[in-house]
Amino acid sequence: MSDLFMQIFTPSNFSFMMKGLGMTVMISIGAVVCSTIIGSILALIRTYASGRAAIFAKIISAYTEFFRCTPNLLWILWIYFTIRGNKIIISVFAITLFTSAVMAEIFRGGLNSIPKGQFEAAESQGFSFIQTVLYIVWPQTFRKVIPALLSQIITVIKDTSFLRMVDIPEFMRNCSVVMGSIYDVRGMMLLYAFQALCYFVICFTLSLVVRHYQSRQGLQRR
Amino acid sequence: MLNGLMNGNRWQALFEAIPEYYIPGFLMTLRTAVCGLLLALVLGMIFGMFSTTRSRILKALSRVYVEFFQNTPLALQVVFYYSCLPILLGGTGMRIPKFILGLMGVGIYHGAYIAEVIRTGIEAIPAGQSEAAKSQGFSYLQTMRYIIMPQTIKIIMPPLANQALNLVKNTSVLAMVAGMDLMYFTDSFGSSTGYFAQAYFCSALMYFIICYPLARLARYLEIRSMRQPVAKVKLEKMMGDSINV
What we know:
The structure holds two protein chains of two kinds.
Chain A: H1 2-8, H2 11-48, H3 54-68, H4 72-82, H5 87-112, H6 117-124, H7 129-159, H8 171-179, H9 185-221
Chain B: H1 2-6, H2 8-50, H3 56-70, H4 74-88, H5 98-123, H6 127-135, H7 140-170, H8 182-193, H9 196-225, H10 229-241
């Protein structure tokens, strides 16, 4: 068994796999940051657009509905095969496109839970609409949606493993390259266990943070 | 990309490919999703109840199940089943059909999420009710069957519909292991003709046809159960967690 271990986890293999893990993390961070920004803008427009701008709210709601009802993998492949350019940027773009819709939905839920009275109160104190949103509504919304946001980040990290299909050098793809040189089923199992462990450590840590926030919110409600 | 989209011949090719590629793929995805959902519900029910019993062992067992499968990618799990299970069972002469491996993959993964939903649902019912039932001579299973579950079901329906939606979307992972599902056939049509824009457009539409009714159902159930005071607080949390997994 230890022979096998040494055979798989040679320094060069190990650093190759760790490079993949780095790529996974970078892509996740890129996609999460972009989609959080886009998602929150979309949610604000969808919730507060009125009058002539209401058409934008309609468009955004169609966008979120459509993307929520199609798989992420489909968008990754579709965009990969039809748009030319840097593979990594394209895959971040594809994941962002999909995740923004989910983020918009998460933020919309948060915005809807802010009582209307706060707008009226802010107006009576001379706040403009933008000031109200920026200083009063948004901070509360953000705090409320943190658990859902973190859960979504976990999903994004897990979903980067789809990029193996389009040959991005991310963690799972690099590990399967290493696996190509192993013919022993025990070695394969060992490598799968290693992959599972790496993903588990990252995602479980994040889910502990989620639980921490949720229990805090539970206390505040009481 | 736009040039390709406007090309009439390509659309023609797509329409001709529908019976050969898209119909079998669509049916396979549907079958995997339905069977996978059944498996997920059974696993979710069992482990959800385990985590609300008094027994430490059962609790720990369900915690390990939930945490492990929620925190590793579905793609990894599915690839593992496909590449290792047949070899491991090779000695016994048992052969697992691909379809079973696929529904196992999505079923076990979503079972972990459903177990969590059911646990939250059961915990939303005040403990006093179980105690009252016990004092009247109900057994554990009877309490669950006649008192807790009927109330829990109302609370958990909206997140369950969400899970069903996510499960359908996640069957697309089977394309990674040639699972003969919609995504796999889309991929093979796209790469054999090079008409990727059309190929994925059609499969996006087909996923939408399955998923949109589920999304509407989830929305409808959510609005309906928001009227129940017990459900409200728990529901907000559960819907947030299950929006996309």
